[in-house]
Structures are given as C-alpha cells and as structure tokens.
Automatic annotation (TrEMBL):
Sorted UniProt keywords: mRNA processing, mRNA splicing, Spliceosome
InterPro entries per record: AAR2, AAR2_C, AAR2_C_sf, Aar2_N, AAR2_N_sf
Protein name per Swiss-Prot or TrEMBL: Protein AAR2 homolog
Record-level GO cellular component terms: spliceosomal complex
Top-level lineage group: Eukaryota
Lineage: Eukaryota, Metazoa, Ecdysozoa, Arthropoda, Hexapoda
Pfam families: AAR2, AAR2_1st
PANTHER family registered for this protein in UniProt: A1 CISTRON SPLICING FACTOR AAR2-RELATED (PTHR12689), PROTEIN AAR2 HOMOLOG (PTHR12689:SF4)
Record flagged with keyword Methyltransferase: no
A biological-process GO annotation: spliceosomal tri-snRNP complex assembly
Length: 373
C-alpha cells in the first residue's frame, strides 16, 4: 500500500471494534475474510463508504455456521463497537454502553495493535462492484433486523401463506395430473421467513401488462418488458436505484451467500434485458447496467459462473436478447450501440460467447401468428 494512502487511512479511516469474538470465528469485510486469533479485537483503516461485514460461527469440530452479514456506511474516523453474543453465536443487535465505547477510545493506543488493517488490495474491486449502492438504498433493502442471513430464519405458517417456488406456480395446470415439481412442492413443510429477517427488495409484478390490455397488447407486452420496467422505475426514488439494487443483491449472493438475493438478481437481469421500446428512454440506465454486469461477471468465482452458465445459459441468453434489441432499435443512440458492440467482443474473448447472429435469433423467437379463416 502507498505510504500516503496508509497514513490517510490511519488518521481518517473508520474502526470496527468487535468484542468477545471467539477464537477461530470466520470474520470478514467486503471481499476478504479471516479466522480470528486469540487477540482479535476488530478492523481498522476502513475507507469511508458502504461496506459489508460478514461472519460465521465455528463449532468445536471447525465446521462453519451459515454466514451472516450487515451493511454499514462507515463515516470518516467512525468508531463502531459491537459485541459478540456467545449464547446466540451471533453479533448482538443491542448497543454497547456508551461508557464502554468511551473507555475503548481512551485506550486506543493499546487497542490498535489488536486491530487488523482493512484489506486495501480489495478496495478497487469493492468500489467497482458497489458503485451504485448508497446509504439510502441499504436502508430500504436491508432486513428490518439489520442482518442478511444466508440461511433464513423460518417459522410455521398456513399452506396459503407459504412462499412458492416461482412463476410456474401461478400458472393453471392443463390437466389434473401433478408434475414432479408439483409433488415435491406439496411435500415441503409450511414455512415462511420470520418477519423482519428477509431482504426488502423491489417486487417485480407477475403480470407484465396493464389491466385493460387487449389480447394484442398482452402479446406485445409479453415480448417487451418496457411496461413492467416503467412501472417499477416510477416507484423508486431515482430510476438508477434499480442498478444499485442489482449490485446489492449480487453482493448479498457473492459475499453474503444468500440464494434469495441471487434469485432477485436474476429477475432484475432478466427484466432489464427483456426491454425493447423503453431502451432509448432509459439510455443512461442501460449504460450503467452493462457496465455493472460486466464487472460482476469478471469478479464472480469461476465455479459460480459455471453454474450460472449451465443453468440454461441464463446470462448469455438474456444478453443475446438485449444486444439484439439494442442493435435493431433505430431510436437507440450510436454511443450505446457502440458500447454494446465492444462489450460483446470482450465477453466473447473471455467466455467464448457467440453474439454473431443476434437479429436472426430474435426472429427465431418471434411468435407465430395464425390467421383463422
């Protein structure tokens, strides 16, 4: 680390004090984690901004508990103190008494040697991955309990209130027969997330068309997600928040190991890539989206990316759709078209994805119109 940067972080960086953390606990911040030693008391030299602190308790056999984490917008020179709850094997949500905090501040010179430095070598990665995550977005999306859990706390509920697997559950069956998925669904216990523990994310409507839509309009909206995107963006404080939420859910998945966050990330990617007519209207959103997604694909672990690609080539197929819409839409400006073209080249070089026949693929997916005599 450059000495000037180190000196700045020493004097202006935030400090996170973690009291009574058991030896061997997996503790991390942003892209890095460690197993704590006997003398661990926290992290120093934290650059100001939004960070994700995460941890996993370790049992006597060295097995890790599911990861838990929380976002915090650290201010310059902030001194944040939290205490480990040995009974709950978790960081306590209760505030540390002010007299304890003041005593730690008064003894800072002695405390300093027990604080690990922020892993500055990961700072550039972190800022790229979280460029759109703001303090207000964190406040809106974080669980009411304040902690993101990779394994949600569940409680019993009636069958009617039990969360279902996905969109297919809302579709009527064409026959009385149960599919394998239906049978598996019925075998699941009636559980739902305990109130206050789930991420509070933007709800994406199942219905992609307005109530008064004609049959032809329903068909059009099923091929173009512009209506749904417009409805969602108008509910946000700023339209660009949708990119911030995409980044937040990606971090909750990549670092926080939350599969629920991953599902929301996939929904947002699919929604944004399924738009055609509204691309010119939200041009700046699409520039931000392409930049953010490219960074996410570069930093995602290889084994996770393989899973994404193996899952019906989810990212690739959605990007094919978006790139085809950008290329064929005459109202999209040249700068966005040029950026999309260059991005195709970079993704082809890295992942060997073929984007050479975008317009032909779009024609292949178009609906067949049948004229009734």
């Amino acid at each position: 680390m450059d000495q000037n940067i180190a000196q700045t972080l020493l004097t202006q960086g935030a400090k996170l004090i973690l009291l009574d953390v058991p030896t061997g606990t997996d503790i991390g911040i942003d892209m890095k984690s460690w197993n704590t030693g006997n003398n661990f008391k926290g992290i120093k030299m934290i650059p100001p901004g939004v960070h994700f602190v995460h941890y996993s308790a370790v049992n006597e056999l060295g097995e890790l508990a599911p990861r838990i984490g929380f976002f915090h917008d650290f201010k310059k020179c902030e001194f944040l103190v939290k205490r480990w709850d040995s009974k709950e094997e978790d960081i306590s949500s209760e505030s540390v008494p002010e007299e304890t905090v003041q005593r730690l501040k008064d003894n800072l010179k002695e405390l300093d040697r027990y604080l690990g430095p922020y892993p500055y070598e990961t700072w550039k990665q972190w800022t790229e991955l979280t460029s759109g995550i703001t303090e207000s977005l964190v406040a809106r999306c974080s669980p009411l309990c304040g902690y993101v859990r990779s394994a949600l706390e569940l409680e019993h509920c009636s069958d009617a209130l039990r969360p279902r697997g996905g969109e297919s559950d809302c579709k009527p069956r064409r026959s009385g027969r149960l599919t394998v998925e239906d049978k598996e669904e019925e075998l699941l216990p009636n559980l739902k997330p305990r109130p206050g523990t789930e991420l509070r994310l933007t709800e994406i409507p199942d219905k992609h068309y307005p109530d008064d839509a004609t049959p032809s309009e329903i068909t059009r909206h099923s091929l173009d997600s512009s209506y749904v995107l417009d409805v969602i963006l108008k509910k946000l404080r700023e339209p660009v928040e949708i990119i911030g939420e995409m980044q937040l859910t990606f971090i909750c998945f990549l670092v926080g190991q939350s599969l629920d966050a991953f599902e929301q990330w996939k929904k947002l990617v699919s929604l944004i890539c399924g738009v055609d007519n509204a691309i010119p209207q939200y041009r700046s959103i699409y520039m931000e989206f392409l930049q953010a997604l490219e960074i996410e694909l570069l930093y995602v672990p290889e084994e996770v990316l393989c899973d994404i690609v193996a899952s019906n080539n989810f990212v690739y197929h959605n990007l094919c759709k978006l790139f085809g819409n950008i290329e064929s839409n005459s109202e999209v400006d040249g700068r966005l078209k040029s950026y999309a073209k260059r991005l195709q080249g970079r993704l082809t070089a890295k992942f060997l994805w073929d984007f050479s026949n975008l317009l032909e693929e779009a024609d292949d997916e178009a609906p067949v119109i049948v004229t009734l005599a």
